[in-house]
Amino acid sequence: MVGAVLVAGGAGYIGSQTCKILASAGYLPVTLDNLSTGYAQSVKWGPFIQADLRDREAVLAAVKTYGITSAIHFAAYSLVGESTSNPAKYYDNNLGAAVAFASALIEADVKALVFSSTAAVYGNPQSELIGEAHPTVPINPYGASKLAFEQALYWLERAHGLNYTALRYFNAAGADPDGEIGESHEPETHLIPLVCKAALGTGKALNVFGTDYDTRDGTAMRDYIHVVDLAWAHVSAIKRLLAGGDSQTLNVGTGSGVTVQEVINTAQDVLGVPVPHALSPRRAGDPATLVADCGRILRVLDWAPRYSDLPTLIATAANWQKSRPY
């Protein structure tokens, strides 16, 4: 075994996939999750501690029991609309609880933390490709609370030597190719699972919001990264920090965008059935394009996307939705 990693939010969509990849790479993933949005059934590759981020004693005990030397923090609220209507909830958890968790790690002498951040920190794009130097002007409390913890990490490192990597990822999608775990959000708000559910008849017809954007076909364009590729990015970041790497903020994406209409067309080709959908006006605050400049992560980490082509994203997501047990 390479070492033990404490994974806060390891019962969630991306966290559980990362636990699987950690285990395959020789690490022991130790999940810390209060199950407010995660699933105990998704914890399959290491010990499970049901506790909140603020439970200092649980964090200290986990570090001592398993000899933990690094951590990954996924445990955040992530619904943009809800963050706008209830910003206190998002700052309380995404900043307050996260700082409490980081403080417990510092007390336990854990020196390496990978933080699951988001492209929402950038706000409205000012360039075709968004690099890490793009201005950070969030337009919702979700993005603002994530950025606030990034800023806290900068000062925690300076004061206490907690090295970190903040991974700002764009649109996570797809599911475990083996079908063991996948995306199980309630409510589901992400495009690719909604497309799959519409095609499979297990969900409502898809609403396409906006057909007059300045894109190839008028529908909004996004950068989709497969959850397995995303998980490997976290593992590569942990490996680098444990080898003495410095703190970094990195985008995680593919560097190319696909439109909503292209997702629908590809799903119809891959699944062989139509995707029922309706065209609706734009939603306020939705930019035309959000695509990552991934140059830095390709230089800094031993990582590159392997599963993030659109047919694979859709096929794995649909396979999970067909047999989804929870």
The run of helices and strands is: EHEEHEHHEHEEHEEEHEEHEEHH
User: And the CATH topology of the largest domain?
Assistant: Rossmann fold
CATH superfamily caption of the largest domain: NAD(P)-binding Rossmann-like Domain
**Fraction of residues in H or I helices:** 25-40%
Strands of the widest sheet, in order across it, are 3-2-1-4-5-6-11
**CATH architectural type of the largest domain:** 3-Layer(aba) Sandwich
Largest sheet geometry: 7 strands, parallel
What does the model show?
The strands form four sheets. This protein has a seven-stranded parallel β-sheet, with helices on both faces. A three-stranded mixed β-sheet has the order 12-9-14. The longest helix has 21 residues, at 87-107. The protein has 326 residues and is an alpha/beta fold. It has two domains: 3-173 and 224-252, 3-Layer(aba) Sandwich (Rossmann fold); 191-223 and 255-323, Alpha-Beta Complex (UDP-galactose 4-epimerase, domain 1), CATH 3.90.25. The protein contains ten helices and 14 strands. Helices cover 39% and strands 19% of the residues.
List keywords for this structure.
3-stranded mixed β-sheet, single chain, Rossmann fold, alpha/beta, 7-stranded parallel β-sheet, UDP-galactose 4-epimerase, domain 1, 2 domains, 326 residues, 10 helices, 14 strands
